[in-house]
Request: fold
Amino acid sequence: MIPSVLPTYSRAPLSFVKGEGSWLIEADGRRFLDLGSGIAVNALGHAHPALVAALSEQANALWHTSNLYQIPNQQALADKLVEHSFADTVFFTNSGTESCELAVKMARKYWYEKGQTDRTDILTFDGAFHGRSSAGIAAAGSEKMVKGFGPILPGFVHLPWADLDAVRTALGDTTAAVLIEPVQGEGGIRTLPDSFLKDLRALCDETGTLLILDEVQCGIGRTGRLFAHEWAGITPDIMMVAKGIGGGFPLGAVLATEAAAAGMTVGTHGSTYGGNPLGCAVGCAVIDIVMAPGFLDGVNRKAGLLRQKLEGLVAAHPEIFEAVRGQGLMLGLKCKVAAADLVKAGYDNLVITVPAADNVIRMLPPLTITEEDISEAVARLEATATQVAAA
Ligand SMILES: Cc1ncc(COP(=O)(O)O)c(C=O)c1O
Reply:
């Protein structure tokens, strides 16, 4: 008999009842160090007092009105995102997948309005993950994502990851946009070199192609800058955001330049819940904290510490680990043994990591993790590696 919850997930036998900062607690009191943050969602940890206060205050005032009316804290959050980014305008969604949908629509509408109705193709890359909607799976293109779900949304051209020559060859009269993650998350914590992003931006400029960055997982301070592309000194035309921006409340956004968003006029897009008062109250609090003086410096300092300790772990267990990869507090351990076995053994040692493609375990701790908790987390990973090595 089919379970009452559609069985699309392979769940660990863990069930948490409480979260405190970087810790997740089970009903029996067992405390796990959370290096997963609900897959990069709880950017400020669990039950951050400022987020709890923002959500509770809004919940006591007003939950929902719809986008038929003005939503003051949606306006406030859009203003903050515009102030701190390349963007001139923001549309709020509830998830990364919805951000992907709009980013694709926006790019195609841009060319439609210019009368170049053939420019509909979106170039995407191996290992990409942009969500599970029809556009999201078509963008990823892998057999694992699309098999059985045809007909697949047309207009996506799949290229080898970080291959500039392939982009150069593929760019043509029918290309609307290039869509890429500055750091692939699901794909195995693969960081694009800054030089690639710079060259990609230049190629897009030469051909008028729109550059869409998917910062759903790597954005909102995760790499040590508000947005990962800032490290390369470039800006996109359109950017997808979700996960960390809501700190655990479902919230996403598409940020765009005025030019890229030109086609998105009244009636062309909408969302019942997108930009609702509850999500935007939390989003405002998240941005205020991440952009407070010193916060990102702290993320970079802690990222350096975690990376250094992970390098030590790899050196101590060459039979288990191959290398550390990633940027900021978005780090991966490329494994020599099955990554899934390490994640599982981590549960025995009360440390949470997240598996990714390419046999990598991901570490996406709360940006608020303390140095003490970093040391404790690596000690638990050390015990995990020892356990797996002995098995
Ligand atoms: C880079 C990236 N894009 C898009 C998505 C889809 O986001 P959501 O699961 O919120 O729909 C994800 C989710 O993991 C992601 O990592």
Q: What stands out?
A: The radius of gyration is 21 Å. The longest strand covers residues 321-327. The first helix runs from residue 37 to 40. The chain has a mean pLDDT of 98.
